[in-house]
Amino acid sequence: MSDEHAKANRQREPKRAPKNLPPRETILQVVGDLFQSFALSCGAVFDALPFGSRELLARVRTTLRRSQPQAAEAIFCNGNLEMDLSTRVVRKNGQEVKLTPTEYALLRLLVVHAGKVLTHRQLLAEVWGPKAVEQTQYFRVHIAHLREKLEDNVAQPKFIITEPAVGYRAIGFNE
User: Fold this and answer.
1) Domains in the chain: ranges and CATH
2) What pTM, to 2 d.p., does this model score?
3) Of 31, 77, 89, 160, which shows the fewest CB atoms inside 10 Å?
4) DSSP characters over the chain
């Protein structure tokens, strides 16, 4: 009777996992990830985020803070040309230059990446959106207008340089 009693007790005791397996939480996470990826591949839609709303807000605030130029970086100068990103003002020889929103967006992109060549596709995607990447005539017209407004000699530009068959580069802005 003691053997039967011992067998019954052993059957009631929970089985323990071998020590070489990962913790239960890790296994559940992997199984959950596999289920979710399988369900997504079958067309399921999940409303749940992989993190809480507080963490999402913190991530958004951090990303926005990093994307904004700091006060010291907000003003870009090149000789007689000055661009203040915080006030959205461009000055040439101390006089404010009126730019259209598109011209300003294009100049801002070039100035923030001063010294680097921005390809035609990059400029089009950033300023006009991804659907306009083949419409190179858009920015050629705006570059010409920017040069008329900012350069002393449009035929010999000093600020916005053309890189043939590649794109454009802003020269000398706080490089």
Assistant:
1) 98-170 (1.10.10.10)
2) 0.57
3) 31
4) -HHHHHHHHHHHSPPPPPTTSPPHHHHHHHHHHHHHHHHHHTT------SS-HHHHHHHHHHHHHHHSPPGGGSEEEETTEEEETTTTEEEETTEEPP--HHHHHHHHHHHHTTTS-EEHHHHHHHHT-GGGTT-HHHHHHHHHHHHHHH-S-TTS-SSEEEETTTEEEE-SS--
